[in-house]
């Protein structure tokens, strides 16, 4: 390992690794965004956080439960996701093409959704 990765802030494990934009601890499962530039900057700590809002303007956070507000087509599936489907334990990610919610939907499995098609439950 040529990179000098920071230890886990939750359990202090030295076996952390990078997964896309996140740092992950394999021992406790904690995921976090690494500080840009290697050190926390006091003046811009609030502006660096990306705020993701649902279709009606509520701020979403990891672990929230959301409801799909319109029917969605799913490639490779005969039936799509119906409006009113509850999605539990979402995770906010920097997805591709505006898909910023990573989740698991019962009957479909793991997928990514856009925050513009859900509302906080």
Rg from C-alpha positions?
A: 17 Å
Average pLDDT for all residues? 82
Structural class given helices, strands, pairing? mainly beta
Strand content: 25-35%
Molecular shape: elongated
What does the largest sheet look like? 3 strands, antiparallel
What letter string, H or E per element, gives the SSE order?
Answer: EEEEEEEEE
Secondary structure tally: strands: 9
Q: Quickly count the helices.
A: 0
Roughly what percent helix? under 10%
Which strand order spans the largest sheet, edge to edge or round the barrel? Answer: 1-2-3
Uncertain ranges: 37-47
Task: Explain what you see.
This protein has no helices and 9 strands. It has 121 residues and is an all-beta fold. The strands form 3 sheets. It has a 3-stranded antiparallel sheet, with no helix packed on it. It has a 3-stranded antiparallel sheet with strand order 5-4-9, with no helix packed on it. It is elongated and about 45 Å long. The N and C termini lie far apart (43 Å).
Key features?
121 residues, mainly beta, three-stranded antiparallel β-sheet, elongated
Give me the secondary-structure topology.
Blueprint: E1 17-19, E2 22-24, E3 31-32, E4 66-68, E5 86-87, E6 91-92, E7 99-105, E8 109-114, E9 118-120
Antiparallel strand pairs: 1-2, 2-3, 4-5, 4-9, 6-7, 7-8
């Amino acid at each position: 390992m040529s990179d000098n990765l920071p230890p886990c802030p939750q359990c202090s494990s030295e076996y952390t690794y990078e997964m896309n934009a996140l740092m992950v601890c394999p021992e406790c499962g904690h995921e976090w965004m690494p500080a840009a530039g290697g050190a926390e900057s006091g003046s811009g700590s609030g502006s660096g956080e990306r705020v993701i809002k649902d279709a009606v303007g509520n701020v979403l956070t990891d672990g929230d439960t959301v409801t799909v507000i319109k029917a969605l087509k799913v490639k490779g599936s005969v039936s799509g996701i119906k409006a009113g489907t509850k999605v539990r334990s979402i995770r906010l990610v920097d997805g591709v093409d505006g898909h910023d919610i990573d989740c698991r939907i019962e009957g479909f499995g793991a997928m990514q959704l856009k925050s513009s098609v859900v509302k906080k439950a």
